[in-house]
Amino acid sequence: MYDVVIIGGGPGGYAAALYAHNFDLSVALVEKERVGGTCLLRGCIPAKSWLKTAEVFATVQKAAEFGVHASDASIDWAAALERKNTIVDGLVKGLSGLLRGRNVDVMDGFGRLADGGVEVSGADGNVRQIGARNVILATGSEPRAIPGYEFDGDRIVSSRDALDWRVRPQRVAIIGAGAIGCEFASFLGDAGSEVHLFEMLDQVVPGAEPEAAKALARELKKKGVKVRTGVTVGPAELRNGHVVVPFEGDYVEVDKVLVAVGRAPVTEGVGLETTKAEVERGFVHVNRQTMLTAEPHIYAVGDIVAGTPQLAHAGFAEGIAAITHIATGETAPVDYRAIPLVVYTHPEMASVGLTEAAARQAGYEIEVHDHGMRGVGRAIIQGEVGGLVKLVSEVDGPILGATVVGPAAGELIHELMYSVAWEALPDEAAAFIHAHPTISEAIGETLLTAAGRSLH
Predict the structure, then answer these.
(1) Claim: this prediction has a pTM higher than 0.85
(2) For residue 282, which of 94, 228, 265, 352 is within the disulfide window of CB 3.0 to 4.6 Å?
């Protein structure tokens, strides 16, 4: 009998398994593939490896602008693919060793809720019963398909397939311009592919600050990406070994279509129908203070949780919250207000807290301030001046949200994460000095303006 059995070895599951050692809990982790989940095996980590390859290639191509002359650059696609796989394999090996070191029993197989615990079906057909005082469901998500674009693993693919392309596709259509779609558009645009990016809503990264979305779209277009927003595509047609993507009286012909319209929760077949847990469209409702479902002793974390962001780092925090409640009965709720969202394009886009539209909808009386990168010395030196910082604060009140577009935005956003989480006033945050010359000075300038004493 284990104190905790976790079904799913992705970020939410393995974070819970690792954190449990702080309380001397006995833990079994059931995983049907390798530990690491979507993020490590076929999402965050491999995607960012490809993005780095493309960034290096694009930088070398522009070397002459910096007074550096190099021979014609090219991407050795096979070598880049091997590097990506080596990174993933190394991290999986490290994670597996860490789990062993924390005395977590990793069990291969498909886990399903059963009376008194979990039923594990192995690839060899054997089924075993595991006793559990508590169960954490962390079964993750999978790419969504859309009618007319069913995945075939070759011409019409998900992000999972696209990360393992053996050769660079010459012409690609990407359906969906959220974080995943924009990251692939950035990567493939930098790598030299002809890219068509389609989004049915009126901007890339729907829900982001409009100014930031416009800045990102502008940078994607500089890479040659054909960005089409407010456009609906018709069903794909296979023609002479290629794919025709029709849209509003026109069409494009491409070699590959990548469907990036979001991710669906993986909860079918795990036995939730035998419990009191509330499930809606595959998502599991939980008490967000504890991550406990309506069924006693059954918790849910990660991408399957209803109404929370499908982000690896959100899964980490939810796993910690579940283990804390199991071990102590106390709560360690996730502060969803202050979870950063990063789009790892080149340049990056990152945000935290409320957007201007969301703050107004919530009834706040707000002030909005922004600062572009064109006057920031370090951005000029790096040749990356297309970004901005936007800050949303309550009138005579704290900082509610922020967005950064620019170099290392995914790192810079954490400064503003603390401001949002700690409900800092603009003049309090503006009192701190940013090193010169740095990209972060754009944040300092925005904070000064929000505090009523702008500098430049």
Answers:
(1) yes
(2) 265
